[in-house]
Amino acid sequence: MERPTWHGLTLKGIVLTVIVIAVAYPFVAVVATSLSTDKEIIANGGLVLWPTEPTLDAYRVIFAGGQVTHALVNSLGVAVVGTAASLVATVMMAYGLSRRGLTGGRFILMVALLSMLFNAGTIPNFLLVKELGLMGTFAALVLPGLISAFNFIVLRSFFTSIPRELIDSATVDGAGDLRVLFKIVLPLSKAPIAVVSLFYAVGYWNSFFNAMLYLDDRDMYTLPLILRQLVLMGQPLAKGEAFLGETPPPQQAIQMAVVVIALVPILLVYPFLQRFFTKGVLTGAIKG
Amino acid sequence: MAPTRRDVLRAGLGAAATATLLSACGTGADSGGGSSNAGVALPDRIPFAGPTPDLPAAGDVPPGYYAYPKQLVRSVSGTPLSGGTVTGMTMTFLSFPPGRDENAAWQEVEKRLGGKLDISVVSAADYETKFNTTIAGGELPDMILYSSGLNNVPQFAQATCADLGEHLAGNKIAEYKNLAAIPTVAWQNCVVGGKLYALPVCRNITGGSGFVNMRFFKELGIEDHTRIANSAEEFLEICKKLTDPGKDRYALATSNGSMYSLTLFTQIFRVPYGWRVDGGKLTSARETPEFKEAVAFARKLYQAGVFYPGSEGFTTVQRGNAFTAGQAAMVYDGFPAFPGFWTGLRAQHPDNDPRPYVPFGHDGGDGVTYQDNVILAYTFVKKAEPDKVKEVLRVADFLAAPFGSEEYQLLKYGVEGVHFTRDATGNPVPNERGTQEMTVPWDKFAANPPVVYNASGGKAYADYAHQALAKMLPMAVANPTTGYRSETSDKEGTKLAKPVTDLVTSIIAGRAELAELDGALDTWRKNGGDKIRGEYESAMAAG
């Protein structure tokens, strides 16, 4: 292969440096601001890149009283249980509908696809959850969106692409549907399952709207509800509407600390799934 | 980020301005899209006999206190509940409070109430969504705060809410001493569909006119924050002197969507609030010659380079930060922002001297302020047997306890020794537990107007705030359409006003000419402005 010229290398270096700065700048600014004092933030126009007097005060405020810690546990619970439940349901449905000759299979597939185009809307969903007696339960965050049509299509496409001969030979050897699923289909589907798991986990981790609508008990609040409120507290609405004599809104550092807390768990999970990620997404993208 | 509700209210200056809560003050018996609330018997006002203030109350001007009163008054005798439960839903602008089981303050409140108070606390930003879904779900709590979001408020109130006039009109309110202290103007805002359907969460009537950092004004020999200039021309010269780009200091900082903080200038030019009524005929504020003069003056200021560069794209937080950092000598913001600025600016620089600004007249006379912050929102009480409604009202009465009462102290600061201690002058100082537990928004069901008091501000803070309110409240003009409803305004007002507000922003920034305003107003009138006017006029004519 031809050796790259120094011009080419320099250009690549500059382009890559610019990209790295563009990606790293907001992240560094968020972390640095979360570690800065209020005075320094205002003096720097709102964002700090290098705190001269780093402090963990913002994190102390957030974690004081155990509210955020409690919400963190709730969110982790919802994310883990929800992802597991969604994965089981989606795999079952996708596998079932990937097999030919299933009675009513085409109809069910159409219904699933239709849900990607039309949403029931907030109020019908609310009424459904209420009629099912799920108000004020964690199940209300999981059951209404147990199977995502998109994730279902991704998995079904992959399952359909597995050679029929493989499954047929297992069937001839006496394997039932469940054995085929667990011994043949799932081991071959690690990549798409990893991707779908990540999609579900991120979805549940960020679960805000359903939690806001269906949960009234503060002890059941998920992290996004609490964090959003902490962010909003610093907004002008709070400032303008606060009664005379009330505590001034918290510093911007708290808002940035909130962003850090919301990001970290996903950042931690991502590298472990990254090697499956590209492969899995491509699988869903090119198989019809 | 979107402008705050107050910015929108102010920027709209008319039909659109009153499209949210004020629009709710109409009747269900529509007459051509407009409707009225005349002739509704409102509760009498019986002032609260609280501790003697340092600065006296006068009319709607609240009393001022230099320090927390030592002798408190018990405003509710007995227990409002007899072991029963009252449910409620309201909003918060603070962090979510710990639940009852972990909240000693909540438990103490229930002890005083003599029963259970089950409330659902929703973030203010999400309140409208939660309110609408709760209504759709058909399970209304006993008390529910309403701010905005319904198109058919009168019909909703008639179908599901208790007529409070039956319990509170005239001297019937004497039974509820704390509610009786609420000013009449606040009750006027609670009339819906020709009946008194709600309880007010009172504010200071005027939302304020902004703040000045007197540190910079004093450098120019200006000492009185209630009169920083005597005319528009003088103000322009002062702004030029305050501006020093080399020191990164400008006279004004503005924010996105506020038409260069136009309220500052409409008040100087005495533009009416929303509408002007003359012989039963309405003229929108933006149709008046005063409005045009205010826009022309704002343009002149822009051309003089006294606005902080780029601040037209600022969020209101950034605008406040520029003021706090000393990059702007003056800023528009609501009066309730004063405690925040008082603490923030003084922490930033020891010589900073934030004070509320009082509008002056462009011609040497007085300016005006607006009655744009009479109430935050109001609370409906669910339709029920009279005894149940009375029970709920007794709870609301407890929650509306005014400053200087034992109940207010409990609701605001908690229990002494548990949630707060006192400083040398007797001001309650919340401890860590108090800071966490005292975020239950009790005052977002029903509340008396705030008094002038700030523990860390002491005498200076109270004097400045009281002086400003004493001047601003007498010059506060009302929107003549308050209490009347225009269906078109409710549904289309904001959308119709948008091209006009966009054009005004462009005119001030020099991207359009002042002469273009007439054309935009013609379009506004044709597209629905005249219809809104007609609906309001017929509603007002109907009495």
Automatic annotation (TrEMBL), chain A:
It comes from Actinorhabdospora filicis. The keyword Amino-acid biosynthesis does not apply. Keywords: Cell membrane, Membrane, Transmembrane, Transmembrane helix, Transport. Its main location: membrane. The keyword Ligase does not apply. This is ABC transporter permease. GO terms for biological process: transmembrane transport. The lineage of its organism: Bacteria, Bacillati, Actinomycetota, Actinomycetes, Micromonosporales. It is found in: Cell membrane.
TrEMBL record, chain B:
Belongs to the bacterial solute-binding protein 1 family. Coiled coil: none annotated. SUPFAM superfamilies: Periplasmic binding protein-like II. Gene3D superfamilies: Periplasmic binding protein-like II. The keyword Signal applies. This is Lipoprotein. InterPro entries: Bact_solute-bd_prot1, SBP, TAT_signal. The keyword Membrane does not apply. Keywords: Lipoprotein, Signal, Transport.
